[in-house]
Amino acid sequence: MTFVRVKGFKIFADRHGQMRCYHRGTNQKVDLTKSPLGSVEFFADCARISAAAEAMKELQPKPGTLGGLFAAYFAEEHYLELSDATKREYRMCAEVLKNIRDTPVTTLDTPLLAAIHDELAKKHSWDKANRVRNFLIQVFRFCIPKGLISRNFAEGVIKKPRPKGTPEAYRTWTFNEVQTVLEAASPQLRAALAMIFCTGQDPSDALEFRKDQVDDGVIWKGRNKTNVGAAIPISGILEGELEKAPVNNAETLLASSKGTPWTYDGFASAWQRLRKKLEKAGKVAPGLTPKGLRHTMATWLREAGQDEREISDLLAQDSKVMGLHYSKNAALARKNRKTMQVWEGEYERRAQKAKLSNPQKKPSNPDKEIKPNE
Question: For the Tyr recombinase domain, which residue ranges apply (predicted)?
Answer without folding.
Answer: 168-340
